[in-house]
Amino acid sequence: MDHSEELGMFRTALGIADLQPSAIRLPDDHQMIVGAMRMHYLDWGGASAKAAPIVFLHGGGLTAHTWDCVAVMLRERFRCVALDQRGHGDSEWSPVVDYRIASHVGDIEGFIDALKLDRPILVGQSMGGLNSIAYATRHSDRMRAMVIVDVAPEISAPGADRIREFSSTPELDSPAAFLERAVKFNSLRDPAVLRRSLHYNLRETPAGKWTFKHDQRRRTDDAMRSFTEDRVRLASEVSKIKCPTLVMRGALSDVLTDASAEKFARSLPNGRWVRIEKSGHNVQGDNPRAFLDAMNSFFSEAGIS
User: Fold this and answer.
1) What is the pTM of this model?
2) What was the pLDDT predicted at 41?
3) DSSP summary character for residue 59
């Protein structure tokens, strides 16, 4: 796909979301070494050097491009960067299959330090949300704010299992076969938007099949057991997070309930929560306009511009 086709797909996605940025542009692709890992990230440019930075962290099985429709609307006010976390997108897979939350946090620390991002805002969804929470337990005094999307230390196991099953889809014959499966999985999303998302999240195998880009070894029994233990530990540490925090819950999500979102927000010294209508677990993709409205209201309340 050439640049004009890629831009056309983006223009279509923005139109479906009823979003009208001042300029439609694609982000710049960059690579960097963080520790011993090669990491890929997107930089939206546009804002002045003094603008507040936002670091976007995607959910498990997704890529940095899940934030495109949101970031293009914010790029003139904020320095927007979106990281492909280890084992995802175009970042390196861990050679020792290390996908612990602590290792992700180390990557985020190195990434923020390398870009010299001063008092960043972290916006994380699902896996990226948990990694953001863990980062904030160490560094909230150096953060402007945090937005956590449809996740908390306490989640609904059946919903999480349903997502894991989809993201563990084996090799299929074509991107069209993945699209058919994705439409059935998320009927909220327009097929054109799903097609664009899959463009960034599929790779062709040497045998001519297609599969997701993310490292599916991170779903081993040992890894999932460690992940559950990490979530339990986080629940005991969230009181350390002092920065203003917004918890977003997709109204149709089967991963985070209203009760769990409220409980998590109340456990934070400076937390609040909001329900986003017409969206499931991937709020930023299902209803980016409402996502932006909620985030902008939060920023206004917190005095962030």
Assistant:
1) 0.97
2) 98
3) P
